[in-house]
Amino acid sequence: MALTLKIQQAAKEQSWLRMGISGPAGSGKTYTALKLANEMGGGKIIVLDTQGGQANHYGGVFKFDIAILEDHHPAVFIDAINQCVAAGYQCIIVDSVSHEWTGKNGCLELHDQAVASQRTQNKYTAWADITPLHNRFFETIERAPVHIIGCIQSKMEHAQEKDENGRAVVRKLGMGSIQREGSDYRFDILLEIDTDHTGRITKCRDGEQDYGLDNRTFKKPGQEFAALLKRWLTTGIVRADADPELQAIKRDMLSKWIAADRKEDFETYFRNNFGGMDAATLRAELEKRANKKKEGSKHNLSVVGTQAAPLINSQAPLDGITDPEEMARLNAIEIVEGKIEQAESLGVDASDIDIVIKDIAMGVNIRQCSMQTLCYLDDALSALINAAKKTR
């Protein structure tokens, strides 16, 4: 496969915040995250709370929504972030990122389960299925078109120091983030905060430019820090994918994606199928695909060896459907038909596509298939697409 590089001059772009706030218990991570999010302004804020709703304590101080995550499986975090993006939130606070690693059904617990299930136990190979999940969690944070602040718990150590009056006091010190080693690099800026509520920036991708951030220390980080963050994030050229109209279309597509219970990464799918399109082009492409579906598809076989039957409800508007399961099924149909179009565009022979559909759908019209059958079709078509990409 020949690689074609798109080379262009580097330029600073406006960006969304990717910030980690780490510190020991009582340092004020949640309060600081909410303070900064509100000071920056610009839209709705939501906290994905993994600590039994502790963020509710600040409900009378700041305006925000909350969703409590009792299961800390990486996939739960991924689905929650995607739902928040689809719902139009402009800032997501994940409190705490540490629980994706150490919490109930978090990565460490999944690893223990994987080791226990092995005939010959091997802690190293047991990471094979867990590491990709963990990576997808951080990739979801990195790609989401919103501001994301991750609160990270720190390992604690107690040290005896002298206060300003010379009296001996015991302080709690943060001694490294509770997350997978190396996870700190996933954030563009990292604020370490102590029990005196003093925050120190230990990492910042500001390019050593005059944004007043690198290596700064802030007592009770708030308005001043938020203003510097906003200046840093809004300096540079406007990203093409930041267009509000384009983001509105993507949110609508993501909502359907979630309703269809799709397991594939949405941003990867969008980039592969619609990457580089502006809002007008994307809207035209989606309309073109919708019209093609109304005309019917030669692959929607209802009886093997006979002419395809008409699509069931192919002309019916989704607005009239209220059953969530049926809406999810219809969205899954749309995704499967999109995969068929993608396979065709990659040069997959129509007869190969028909064979896959025939073997899985057993002669049933695609629009009459169950959700489970549609998932099997999607997996099989994805395999065809991946194989076609490797031969290009």
List the helices and strands and how they pair.
Layout: E1 18-23, H1 29-40, E2 45-49, E3 65-68, H2 74-86, E4 91-95, H3 99-102, H4 107-117, H5 130-143, E5 147-162, E6 168-177, E7 189-193, E8 198-204, E9 217-219, H6 223-234, H7 244-259, H8 266-274, H9 279-295, H10 324-345, H11 350-361, H12 371-390
Parallel strand pairs: 1-5, 1-7, 2-3, 2-4, 4-5
Antiparallel strand pairs: 5-6, 7-8, 8-9
* Percent of residues in beta strands: 15-25%
Mean pLDDT: 83
> In terms of per-residue confidence, which ranges show pLDDT below 50 for 5 or more consecutive residues?
300-321
Oligomeric state: single chain
Shape: globular
CATH-defined architecture of the largest domain: 3-Layer(aba) Sandwich
Question: Strand count, sense and closure of the main sheet?
Answer: 9 strands, mixed
Q: List the secondary-structure elements in sequence, H or E.
A: EHEEHEHHHEEEEEHHHHHHH
Tally of distinct domains: 2
Number of distinct helices: 12
CA-CA gap between termini: 6 Å
Radius of gyration: 25 Å
> What is the helix content?
40-55%
The count of β-strands is: 9
Which fold name is given in CATH as the topology of the largest domain?
Rossmann fold
CATH class of the largest domain: Alpha Beta
- The chain-level structural class is alpha/beta
Question: What would you say about this model in short?
Answer:
The chain is α/β, with parallel strands linked by helices and 392 residues long.
Textual characterization of the structure:
- It is a single chain.
- The protein has helices at residues 29-40, 74-86, 99-102, 107-117, 130-143, 223-234, 244-259, 266-274, 279-295, 324-345, 350-361, 371-390; strands spanning 18-23, 45-49, 65-68, 91-95, 147-162, 168-177, 189-193, 198-204, 217-219.
- The relative contact order is 0.11.
- It has 392 residues and is α/β, with parallel strands linked by helices.
- Strands 1, 2, 3, 4, 5, 6, 7, 8 and 9 form a 9-stranded mixed sheet that branches.
- It is 41% helix and 16% strand.
